[in-house]
Amino acid sequence: MPELPEVEVVRAGLAPAVTGARINAVDVLDERALTRHPLGAADFVGRLEGREVRAAARRGKFLWLPLAGGDEALVAHLGMSGQMLLRESDAVRERHERIRLHIEHPQHGRLAVAFADQRTFGSLAVDALLTTPDAAPGGFGADLLLVPSQVAHIARDALDPTFDERAFIAAVRRRSSAIKRILLDQTLISGIGNIYADEALWAARIHPETHGAALSVHAVRRLLGEVRHVLEKALAEGGTSFDAQYVNVNGQAGYFAHSLNAYGRGGEPCPRCGGELRREAFMNRSSHYCPRCQRRRGAR
DNA sequence: CTCAAGTCCTGTCAGC
DNA sequence: TGCTGACAGGACTTGA
């Protein structure tokens, strides 16, 4: 379930249930869910059992639960199809459940946190926390100036108040890559995936193949505004759900799929100009755009 | 056979 | 020569 709004819905759903809770036990049902934890299942379980969770934090599409002691966090990436589900402590296994945390919260009692993932691109890890180089909190929901080592190379996300807009604009204008590839580069700006890249480019009327260097400062700033706008709107509607692969911690779908203007609409009329939206192969996936109102400038 | 919300790795090439 | 970064393409996986 991937992009920033969907991961934020999960973080916000998890936070009240896990903050202050103790991890009593951990079931590793499929070791492939630990690809980000190279020390293996026994080490993973040993580092978690008996520890207390302090918060639920997020940067871009990475989620983490800082642990008492302040030096480590449980890191989660949902990949393409990962889910974090809050369940009764004795709930039956989810379809594709890979890991289960048995937690106990002072107010909510015993609960299960199930990590389920059909395609196994997602994974969990216990990771060291490092001091942030920019002296700002590690991410949304993090009050401390700490970030997991696996997240340190990820840029601050588009909705982070400490996101460096001037540096981003300068970096875009130095690149010769297609602007869509730049938006998907998590080391420059994080949280954007294929859906919201297409939506933001459509809103800003920029062709996805336009080179970064061909964009004016004004155009990049406008694009950034559209990125923030679409992420916030999607978040307000609970994220984008096409099928059961994206759900919140209670298993419910989001509503933003009804509001998409370009993504998934190849062959349909553009909601703005009536031209026919196109779907085109791009970076092993697809781009959706309107060839009429997203004109190619500085193309490749 | 094609397609899908992501990340990471590898090889190439340029520049210091 | 070796290091670093930019860049493009592909690997990984399951199921519809």
TrEMBL record:
DNA binds at H96, R119, R175. The keyword Manganese does not apply. The keyword Lyase applies. Residues 261-295 form the FPG-type domain. CDD domains: EcFpg-like_N. It catalyses: Hydrolysis of DNA containing ring-opened 7-methylguanine residues, releasing 2,6-diamino-4-hydroxy-5-(N-methyl)formamidopyrimidine; 2'-deoxyribonucleotide-(2'-deoxyribose 5'-phosphate)-2'-deoxyribonucleotide-DNA = a 3'-end 2'-deoxyribonucleotide-(2,3-dehydro-2,3-deoxyribose 5'-phosphate)-DNA + a 5'-end 5'-phospho-2'-deoxyribonucleoside-DNA + H(+). The active site is at P2, E3, K61, R285. InterPro entries: DNA_glyclase_Znf_dom_DNA_BS, FPG_cat, FPG_Glyclase, FPG_N, H2TH_FPG, Ribosomal_uS13-like_H2TH, Znf_DNA_glyclase/AP_lyase, Znf_FPG/IleRS. PROSITE patterns: FPG_CAT, ZF_FPG_1, ZF_FPG_2. Signal peptide: none annotated. GO terms for molecular function: class I DNA-(apurinic or apyrimidinic site) endonuclease activity; oxidized purine nucleobase lesion DNA N-glycosylase activity. This is Formamidopyrimidine-DNA glycosylase. Keywords: DNA damage, DNA repair, DNA-binding, Glycosidase, Hydrolase, Lyase, Metal-binding, Multifunctional enzyme, Zinc, Zinc-finger. Binds 1 zinc ion per subunit. Its EC number is 3.2.2.23, 4.2.99.18.
